[in-house]
Write a structure and sequence with these properties.
single chain; 205 residues; two-stranded antiparallel sheet; globular
């Protein structure tokens, strides 16, 4: 059974991390954030995380016009990519997400990292918020107060609950249709998207 007080947690950003730490009384080093806004820019088809990082930093430095020397080094203490080796060291990992595109891509990105680092998926659990109330969808953990996280937290989905599901249409298809730039999606990243799209399908039944 997943012990949230002992696990490492992964969230979409600093706001989400702050809310989660307050909700569960977690220490600073128990929470990693996704420092890479995956919903924009290229996803290079490479097995080399160094090449991935360089390509993403070049792209992001053009977007952050007031931060031309942007580097993921700024996230050396709390960034997921900058601390990817910790995924192998931890015994249990929980990824938190809402239904919004950035959070769903975070789920795919974590699977991508597990694939690249040849890690055991059995220690990975997903905690995905869908609705706070009947008509209020949750797109991001950052929308929730610490109190709402504690009160409405869904049960974690463990490996056996989201692997082997019926495949769903690729999430890259709607992304490609609404994007004006040309993207190359790595097969492992696309596979991760399909796995977690399938996980959502299980929960919706």
């Amino acid at each position: 059974m997943l012990d949230l007080n002992q696990a490492m947690h992964i969230v979409g950003g600093a706001s989400e991390a702050g809310c989660l730490k307050r909700a569960l009384h977690l220490s600073h080093d128990q929470v990693l954030i996704n420092e890479d806004p995956l919903s924009c820019g290229p996803a290079p088809a490479t097995a080399d995380l160094g090449v991935w990082r360089s390509a993403r930093e070049r792209y992001l430095s053009k977007i952050f016009v007031e931060w031309p020397d942007f580097s993921f080094r700024e996230y050396v203490d709390i960034g997921l990519l900058m601390n990817a080796e910790r995924l192998d060291q931890e015994q249990a990992i929980a990824v938190w997400a809402g239904l919004g595109l950035p959070d769903q891509l975070l789920l795919a990105w974590v699977v991508f990292l597990f694939d690249r680092l040849n890690l055991d998926l059995s220690k990975l659990a997903i905690i995905q918020f869908e609705k706070l109330r009947p008509a209020q969808y949750v797109l991001s953990l950052g929308e929730l107060s610490p109190e709402n996280i504690r009160k409405y937290r869904p049960a974690p989905l463990c490996r056996d609950m989201w692997l082997g599901a019926v495949p769903c249409p690729s999430l890259t298809e709607p992304l490609a249709s609404c994007s004006t730039d040309t993207r190359t999606f790595d097969p492992a990243l696309e596979s991760g998207m399909n796995v977690f799209s399938a996980a959502h399908w299980i929960r919706a039944r």
